[in-house]
Amino acid sequence: MLCKTNYHTHSTWCDGKASLESMVLAAIKNGLQILGFSSHTMYPFGSNWHLQPENTQAYCKEVHTLKEKYKDKIEILLGFEADYIPPVSFPTKKRYAQFNPDFLIGSVHYISDENKKKCCFTIDGNCDEIKTGIQTCFNGNAKKAVQVYYATQRDMIALSGFDIIGHLDVIRKRNDVLKFFDETDLWYKREIKATAQALAKSNLIAEINTGGMARAGLKTPYPSAEFLKLLNHYDIPIMINSDAHKPEGINAQFKFAEQYAKDAGYKEVQYLQNGTWKSAVL
Ligand SMILES: [Zn+2]
Ligand SMILES: [Zn+2]
After folding, report:
1. Is the backbone of residue 235 left (phi > 0), alpha (psi -120 to 50) or beta?
2. Which ligand is nearest the CA of 108, by number?
């Protein structure tokens, strides 16, 4: 039977809207067997939506306390969603070793101008941030911005040192509204193919992330159906995560995601239990 899990969970330690304990209670209520916390981090730095570096130890302590308190009901794991922002932040086990996390998600939220001189904007920000970012950092060239986004992800994949790659095409988040690129364009297909090929050379797990459906009104999870089929073609292991920021999102659209994975050709998903990565039949 499929093990019910979620390894992508935020809380008020970063930009989540609820305490760690509220998220645990929601997970138990919804029958999850394993819950992994993944506060946004760019240790040793921070922004207003990241875990503040000086709070990192306290965050870990609270996760450990809850792990013990609820051990008969659910397995709780300590993780981080660490940003890749060269040369500032790298999602590597080495950088987080002192906190001894059970797992690390590596994510790209920021893209820099072509010369990587300065950090430009968050590609999953609101529509205005994205419009302004493309205008000021890429002279309005949206194609270039999208290409830089995927190239940045491939750089992160090559770096490796983490377990799970977060929301592979989160750049789609505002595209339904802004329509700044066309997923059917050949150049776009080349980008996602090159990224799937880069993942094939790594030992990273990709996530089907339902957060965009729950929070941004998207009709499909990240990655797109076409991207997910490519991942399956290259034998990239996957897992299903909610990227929950509120208790009610803890397993949002998981049934949809399971069918979505099957439709892409997947037969199993990965999960981490008692310190060991395992696979479960879908
Ligand atoms: Zn993220
Ligand atoms: Zn997240």
Report:
1. left
2. 1
Instruction: Reply yes or no on whether the pLDDT at 119 is more than 70.
Output: no
What is the 1 CA–ligand 1 centroid distance (Å)?
29
User: Which parts of the chain fold into alpha helices (H)?
Assistant: 20-29, 56-69, 93-96, 127-138, 142-159, 175-178, 186-200, 211-216, 225-233, 254-263
- Residue 265: is its pLDDT beyond 70? yes
Task: Give the Å distance between the CA of 23 and the centre of ligand 2.
Answer: 14
Tokens 């073609």 correspond to: 233
Q: What does the pLDDT look like over 8-54, one tens digit per residue?
A: 999 999 999 999 999 999 999 999 999 999 999 999 999 999 999 99
Domains of the chain with CATH codes:
5-105+152-281 (3.20.20.140)
Span from the CA of 235 to the centroid of ligand 1 (angstroms): 23
**Count of C-beta atoms within a 10 Å radius of residue 161:** 16
The CA R_g of the chain, rounded to the nearest whole Å, is 18
When mean pLDDT is compared across 1-5, 23-27, 49-53, 98-102, the lowest value belongs to 1-5
Q: How remote is the CA of residue 25 from the centroid of ligand 2, in Å?
A: 19
Distance 107 CA to ligand 2 centre (A): 8
**196 vs 229: CA distance, rounded Å:** 10
Rounded distance between C-alpha atoms, residue 169 and residue 173, angstroms: 8
Whether residue 209 contacts residue 8, with contact meaning beta carbons closer than 8 Å, is answered with yes
